[in-house]
Design goal:
It contains 12 helices and no strands. Helix 2 runs antiparallel to helix 4. 24% of the residues are buried.
């Protein structure tokens, strides 16, 4: 039986409250991101900052802001392409780890939805079995998003000399209008991709598919459930928007803004991301006519 969106949300919430450990993949992902940031800073310092400091005989303990600014300018002017290459390598490596935890979270949500409970073992199994395929899928989707830059080409060509345009924007009003229109089309294109591909990751992990088959399956489920998928997408975006709106509302009070920023970060990891994962997992499983565990059928809802 096809569940209404309200039923998916209600029963998904019940599944989440009984499986709060679904937040563990997201916590581990944040820890991994922090480690990668520290690693990136260490690599950047070792490869680019230390050699210049040594060559110029600068005392690191007494370095001035002007000297540090000069070092950074020198590094980026002389080694920009190397920095980009190293940055891309670290980004791809991080995406690989992120794919492992994302696959693990979906597997945990699937087990909880179908069997009533889940554990860390499900996370490791789901990650190990699907992280390569999920990583490749994310690369394909990223390339599709980047392909949307083609919308900016007419505006860029129309503007011509960028330096002249920046110094005198009135020189190419038509080109600027085309560029703004292209930017809006690119944003709409990315939104469209995010809706159409909303369930691709879930198809890949739950059904253990390869990237191409997962994309086809995810798009097929979207085509058969366009309006419900759109509602789920609005729900996901709406939650993020509301959190941002609350952040903006508290931005005028420094202490409250700092507390809310920290609370939003914790809330997003512990509650929002796991809950959204459970909702989308349940939605996909239900639309695929999979048998779902119902707490309503057991004496667990006192």
């Amino acid at each position: 039986m096809v569940e209404e969106i309200g039923t998916v949300i209600r029963k998904g919430f019940g599944t989440w409250t009984r499986n709060l450990n679904i937040c563990l993949p997201f916590i581990l992902e944040v820890v991994t991101a922090m480690l990668f940031f520290v690693l990136a800073m260490l690599i950047f310092t070792a490869l680019f900052i230390v050699p210049i400091v040594s060559q110029q005989n600068i005392d690191p303990a007494n370095i001035t802001p002007d000297q540090m600014l000069g070092i950074f300018i020198s590094v980026f002017s002389e080694s920009m392409w190397l920095i980009i290459i190293v940055g891309l390598i670290l980004l791809l490596l991080y995406m690989l780890f992120q794919s492992f935890f994302a696959a693990g979270a979906i597997r945990m949500a699937s087990e909880a939805s179908e069997k009533g409970n889940t554990g860390l073992g499900d996370m490791f199994r789901g990650g190990k079995e699907n992280f390569i395929n999920l990583f490749l899928t994310n690369i394909l989707v990223l390339l599709l998003a980047v392909a949307g830059l083609v919308f900016l080409v007419p505006g860029i060509i129309s503007i011509g000399d960028l330096d002249l345009f920046l110094s005198n924007p009135q020189s190419s009003v038509a080109g600027a209008s085309l560029l703004i229109a292209g930017l809006l089309l690119w944003v709409l294109y990315i939104f469209a991709l995010s809706i159409i591909f909303l369930l691709v990751d879930y198809a890949l992990v739950i059904d253990r598919l390869d990237p191409i088959t997962a994309i086809e399956k995810g798009i097929n489920v979207f085509r058969q459930n366009m309006f419900p998928v759109f509602i789920m997408w609005v729900l996901v975006i709406g939650i993020s928007f509301m959190l941002r709106l609350l952040g903006e509302a508290t931005s005028y009070l420094d202490m409250i803004a700092q507390l809310w920023s920290f609370a939003e970060f914790i809330l997003n990891i512990i509650v929002i991301q796991p809950l959204i994962t459970v909702w989308l997992t349940r939605f996909y499983l239900n639309r695929e006519d999979r048998k779902l565990y119902s707490f309503d059928d057991y004496m667990l809802d006192y």
